[in-house]
What does this fold into?
Amino acid sequence: MQVSRRSQVDPFIVMDVMEAATQAEANGRHIIHMEVGQPGTPAPAGARAALAAAMEESPLGYTSALGLLALREGIAALYQKWYGVTVSPARIVVTSGSSAGFLLAFTALFDAGDRVGLGLPGYPSYRQILRALSLTDVGFETSEANRFQPVPDDLVGRDLKGLIVASPSNPSGTILSRAALAALIESCSATETAFISDEIYHGIHHGERAVSALELSDDVYVINSFSKYFSMTGWRIGWMVVPQDHVRTVERLAQNMFICAPHAAQIAALGALGCDAELDANLEVYSANRALMLEELPKAGFTRFAPPDGAFYIYAEVSEFTENSLAFSQEILEKAGVSVTPGLDFDAGRGAQWMRFSYARSTADIKEGLARLRKFMTERGHL
Ligand SMILES: Cc1ncc(COP(=O)(O)O)c(C=O)c1O
It folds into this structure.
């Protein structure tokens, strides 16, 4: 049987790397995970308790396609709390993680062949989802000088119907300042380019907080998730805020594509909204891990990186050591027992000489990982 051309997307390399690490673990090796973009902590206790209670009381059937009203109201309250912005719950769509949000947003906004811009390095699935929807992904290299974020000049002459940005970004962890975000939104609005803001790492910042696109405009799509700050990756629950006049379009798509996001995960997410103390404790771990990384990575020979503003990644240049970051990460996994992500996932060109280190796991793991990296780099003759 034939397969479609649009289904021929690239693999998500970090998932392949995780698979190799899992295989090594199955063979009895102890692996330190610095590849995964997920917290080592479980969903907060309030989330788990809410679900345990609901399982006894309710059949947990389908919800409305837009999500439980209480959850949409809770998310609206979060916008007030985090940014002082009033967002009507009617504009909030609960999704199966931000990944389903991309699918809904790209389908609602674009027609086959439309050109959608994204800065490189960036989160790889944007372009693969665009391709699978017969849209044209227009990747352009962002510069280190612009902290690997797009600037309005990058958009000129590209004939874009849309632009997607992430702040804090994956893999670089950089945050767009209010002025930089405003400049991008204005330039998109002037050229009728839909602006999509991936805000999945909001809440995880190490200095000034990230600005939401909703502080600057209502004519944007904002996509967010319970995966990162709320420590709920496997629960597959997120949300999207869309302009009021797009709600019905997105609702019809959501009804048909998903019926609804998992009811159980929606209940847990609602519980998670009340767990500030536990989530703040997670932030302290990321902050301690970041400090360790900034101190110890250079001692392991990795000196070419900028301190991240948010998220839990460090994107480092490794051209002194390799021309092939995939082979290098395989060597590190095999010899050091540390799993890291090659930059190729985020930037198919320059990424061959970059590597992403995640510090989302426990501080003890990060310490051990850094010690192993240092030993490996010593044995490889770099120190
Ligand atoms: C920038 C970015 N957006 C979206 C996602 C997908 O997250 P979710 O679990 O909400 O689907 C990730 C996952 O790592 C990410 O890094």
Observations:
- The chain has a mean pLDDT of 96.
- The longest helix spans residues 276-296.
